[in-house]
Amino acid sequence: LDDARRDDSQRRLGVWLIGAFGSLATTSIVGCLAVAKRFAPRIGLVGDDPRLAQLGLAPLEAIVFGGHDVRRSSILDEAVAISSENGSLRREWIDQLRTELTAVDRRVRTGVVGAGGGAIRALGAPAGDAEDVPARGCIRRLSEDLRAFRNSERLDGLVVVNLASTEPPPTTAESTESLDALESRLDRSTAAQVRAGTLYACAAADSGAAFVNFAASGSCLTPAVEAYAVRATVPVMGSDGKTGETLVKSALAPMFRARRLDVMSWVGFNILGNRDGLVLSDESNKRSKLGTKDGVLPAILGSGVRTRVGIEYVESLGDAKVAWDHIHFRGFLGHPMSMQFTWQGCDSILAAPLVLDLARFADVAMRRGECGPMLHLASFFKAPIHCDEHDLHRQYERLFDYARRTESKRS
Ligand SMILES: NC(=O)c1ccc[n+]([C@@H]2O[C@H](COP(=O)([O-])OP(=O)(O)OC[C@H]3O[C@@H](n4cnc5c(N)ncnc54)[C@H](O)[C@@H]3O)[C@@H](O)[C@H]2O)c1
After folding, report:
1. Atom of ligand 1 at shortest distance to CA of 382?
2. Using the 8-state DSSP alphabet, how is residue 334 labeled?
3. How do 320-330 and 336-346 pair as beta strands?
4. Whose CA is nearest to atom 39 of ligand 1?
């Protein structure tokens, strides 16, 4: 075991971020380096729970970042912009990490917009190639980028995490197609006709990388895309990181259920002003997000509860997202009462440690030869695939069970 541990400590884990110049990717990269170098306090990593120690997660020091984006920018510039906007990334950390961040910038490759919708295209002229290339050729090019990263950085494992802007939902035909139908669609389409999420997920599978969909883009994990990944024997999980209002809902709703209180309605309203919010102000992109956010309460409280979720873009707020929730419920003798809460979170600060955790959990799954959905990671997602359990506490038990099973296999 000691030998195995020593080997583990020398591993190099590649984490490839789709949307590498985004706020969340930048915060994940700067945050990982700042914590690894002890500039910043180590707070908010689920993987640090002692009950998970036996999983032997890769240390933050072992992570090497690369990624794709469709805008021209740099992680260094994005980090400086975040620092001056809200101070969540300290300027002195960025200055001390200049060499490392420049090295990551050199590993960011041009991504693909695909059929991502006008809101994503409007983010900036795509830095990308012409997208009238065949979809197959595009997938090959993306997976070549991943292979080159794996080889040049001498990586022991590779995890792709989708942090790109949320796309509109896949069509019903795409959501229900078979693997064969997906294959023939890829054969006859150009890259511009296929959702980028599908192109990236197939490229990850082709290059033997695990895939985590942190965005709400359903095209990354349709049943056909999942089957594509299973055939390539890689682990996958998603969708849509559970970091704010939905996290609170999934922790609080079980309390109402346990006390047999009758929740009549639960209405939540979110306002945010970052680039994510700008893309979500497009009705078709917003539909993806509303879909992942609105399934949690009926799953815990039953279909009788009336729910409504709103998302509005308010530019002045930047990354400081505010959610206001109103819960109307009845108690003993049918007496009505209410609860309200306001959640104010820095979106990327809430999400970045989860990105680092998910990459390291996916690495463990790969090392253990697991493939397909990583159901033990359901607690990290608003809409975990193949999981009807939305109670946060029960979802965490699944993660601890997974770790306990590891322990019993070892002993
Ligand atoms: N708390 C959170 O921050 C949180 C929680 C759950 C989900 N998410 C999701 O994570 C994603 C990232 O959030 P963010 O705040 O960093 O957004 P962001 O807008 O700052 O970053 C998105 C990045 O993706 C890039 N991009 C867009 N389309 C792309 C494509 N097809 N290929 C490659 N790059 C592409 C953009 O250029 C941008 O740099 C969003 O989808 C968001 O909904 C965030």
Report:
1. 6
2. G
3. antiparallel
4. 22
